[in-house]
Amino acid sequence: MKYVPIPVAMLEVGRPLPVDIWSDSGQLLLRKGQPIVSEQHRDKLHAFNACATPGDAMAWQRAYERMVHELLRDGVDVQTIAKAPMPERIHERDFVRATTSSASWLDMQDVLRGILYQGGLAIQPLARMGGIARHVLKRVAADPNDALFRLFQMLSDNSLGYCATHALLSATIGVLTAQKLGLDVHLQRSLLDAALAQNIGMARDQDSLSRQSVAPTPAQRQVIADHAQISADTLRRLGLEDEDTLDLVRWHHQPLHPEGLPRNVTARRILAMADAYVAKIAARKTRAPLPPIAAAKSIYAEGAGESSPLGAAMATVTGFYPPGTYVMLANGDTAVVAQRGHRANAPWVIPLMDKNGMPAMQYTCQDTADAAWAIAAPLNFQTVRIAVNADRVQRARSRVFMRSSGPMPPT
Question: Which of 82, 185, 275, 353 reaches 20 to 30 Å from 202, CA-CA?
């Protein structure tokens, strides 16, 4: 049997283990229910390259991801979560592996967040991120509007954490932009993989920074400055061999750096722009989020106002008012954007509340290209106090459009 290494550094002395522990050669080191009795005992497990069976290892990893999700939901500080050991209990449902066809965006976010938090200690991270990447491509191909809708909605929910949502949304926007520009398929996949893993060197710090009410400390600024190199080094140590992905991760904040691979300049610029765009529209306690239309316009131009074809492509695939964001209509209604339109500034929306504060009884798609439903202004997530049901939005779209993806922007 092939055994899977476990994060021995995350095992707490004195706590019973929920699985059998083996050496990489198949020697039983600890039985389920036995504890690590001392630091010296843990060092011995390190020396024997402590492992678990693949099924036990993945269930334990899933238990960790569930634990992190629950701690974030309960408002536990990210730095406290960072010190949490591997859980001593595995639920039966942790042994049931989600399939590609059934896993939701929230499922993917849970898995990716756990991998990013653990970094170099994660269990089988490359294979699992590869599965997430394939699932992202499948979801985006099936319905890009629904993908953007659910991810922009997730971005507004701080209880989910920020790092994994940022990665998934950057990846989705990056892939759509790369497809729009006709990038090589291999490079599209490298771009996707890089977007998912770009911040593995500072994931917990990324979540802490998104929640803190003061400016970054000097130590945090150093983490920000170093994270691209740390992320690339971490991925290489984990066994990633794709030089394009490593190049994109290493230089995603310096896309024109002379040490970057020349063939990846366009892909690096796409990743840098997607990364910056998502950061600008995400809420911080230290600043208000930038409205998507302002963020889109900021990436549309480069240098002294010179138009950027890459920025134009990205603005086209997201729209100035992306699915999942909110707008105020000229008639006073508050609406959620449901689908991109044929023009970046004219999406389809679903009114949620009228000017008198009365909620809409039904979800009905309206075209903002029609003057009767014109957009007056974007709204920040924090100003809208109405829960939105994404499945109802998708059904409302399907009643209007023959294809689930609806009308695509001009090519």
Answer: 185
